[in-house]
């Protein structure tokens, strides 16, 4: 009896195994249209972020169940209160914001990013102990993790970027993209032949804020390898942004290489026509265009430094903006940078007063320097930058234009730095 039961059990196991193999074969042989593409995955993620935004944004007045008012009538993405529950106290007086530094880096960047961390910690973060998120399209090695962990006063977190966020979308014609790179290389356009640079620009434009490690934060400060901070930062810029209802900030602005974005503004105009509900009433179009929006003057904020609000990037307005540009393919058919993409989005989707220029955060990223204008400011902040190196008021800078369109008084002494 026991022998018969054992034989029966073996028959059942063999039968189960055969059915499992047949099911696997039939599932694997489904037509390609039933398989989920990278674009399908990204679209699902976009819907997830729109859901996240809906949960963190209060309904506008008059909104009823089943009715979604236009974005222009919705409240702006919220900024958090100054006190955030669950965060440890900072070494400096006052509460901390729900914020993090974020860096995209390779393992080979370790000594360059170590320099940047040391600058940020010495000049600011040793008093606040904010976290630091590191992102890479490959796993971080032990050397990178050990050194960065030893340098950061807050918690360090390490994330590997999803393939869908660092690859060619399925709607891109790779032969066409390759020919573009070859042509740009022949014309010696900076990064014109680089595939990885294009992945980086697309990632920073539309995906860094979707990384799982970024989900818990509301504010970010982007830090690149080999940057310098020349002056002490005696206050919390994250708190300043929240207190003054700012969403985006910069320290350097300049003109983009026209050869890298020949059709970018065409895509922007198409977006503006398709989504007029997303365009802010008191926007900064005059910073971006000399002719009321017909053409792009190539001014942009240099995004290798930016402090911003993540909820704005997660908003339907920004997601629609990025998706519209992404589908046009300019990240690969041209060489659209994340700096003009972020800048145009901020200039059109935010009110003027929601963008801030940090004169007192002194910053260097090769080859440009922002050294605060005003001798007393530099002395008070223990700056070690040469004011003659300040790029703000040079002819190729757009910062003077930013002051003009906002009716702002330029700092005393700016005339001496114009040449």
From TrEMBL:
The keyword Phosphoprotein does not apply. InterPro entries: Glyco_trans_15, Nucleotide-diphossugar_trans. GO terms for biological process: cell wall mannoprotein biosynthetic process; protein N-linked glycosylation; protein O-linked glycosylation. Residues 56-92 are annotated as: Disordered. Keywords: Glycosyltransferase, Membrane, Transferase, Transmembrane, Transmembrane helix. The chain crosses the membrane at residues 9-26. The active site is at 306 (nucleophile). GO terms for molecular function: alpha-1,2-mannosyltransferase activity. The keyword Membrane applies. GO terms for cellular component: Golgi apparatus; membrane. It holds the Pfam family Glyco_transf_15. Belongs to the glycosyltransferase 15 family. This is Glycosyltransferase family 15 protein. It comes from Xylona heveae (strain CBS 132557 / TC161).
